[in-house]
């Protein structure tokens, strides 16, 4: 019931942002560092969204982006969790695998695009790879953090009771690291969308990123905002879905501390 009382404030916050956007765009407000001269009004964006909804292009763009992001994300989830478990549990794996991964981690997605185009036979595969790289590192690092945060006394107790390596991993390490892994999976979903859109702007023929970039080149400014909002909504919904599934899979975990 307490959360119901928070919704009016949340809705009022969104309404205030929309009102400022409407006034600034309608008055073509120029604040010096930022100008709203060419920014479309919310009404123009709503009209563009309605036209996109009625066209056949929306299904093609959504299908392309969703297929790419989930293919890359699922591959990154499997690789990130497995690598994270290995690095978190083995000093040999940490010394041999983590250094090259740490070198690759700071490289932005846009820097991978030329090499991905050279490495993969199709632009589709290269865009999936970009999505994979974007999701991999948040999942990997959060998994490592979760595994290393497991209380060693629990591991020692399980070992003293005769548990083998697989039993310790299954009964102690994975449950203890699961909350951190879920956090990494949720963050990785968000970065997947960011990286995919970047790749689609350069290499795509269909997709939300391609639609946004094409709208810019054609100077269809309301369509640009529609594409941005679609990306935001899809990223928010998919990340929330991952967190909900993670909470369902870890019923023993509750985040401590309530904010007032």
Automatic annotation (TrEMBL):
Main location: membrane
Cell membrane is among the record's keywords: yes
Pfam families: BPD_transp_1
A single BP term in Gene Ontology: alkanesulfonate transmembrane transport
Keyword field contains Membrane: yes
InterPro entries, per the entry: MetI-like, MetI-like_sf
Keywords on record: Cell membrane, Membrane, Transmembrane, Transmembrane helix, Transport
Localization, UniProt: Cell membrane
Positions of the ABC transmembrane type-1 domain: 62-242
Membrane topology type: Multi-pass membrane protein
Signal sequence residues: none
Alphabetized SUPFAM superfamilies for the sequence: MetI-like
A Gene Ontology term for the protein's cellular component: plasma membrane
Transmembrane stretches, start-end: 35-53, 65-88, 127-147, 167-186, 224-242
PANTHER family, alphabetized: ABC TRANSPORTER PERMEASE PROTEIN MJ0413-RELATED, ALKANE SULFONATE ABC TRANSPORTER-RELATED, MEMBRANE SUBUNIT
Family per similarity comment: Belongs to the binding-protein-dependent transport system permease family.
Name of this chain's protein: ABC transporter permease
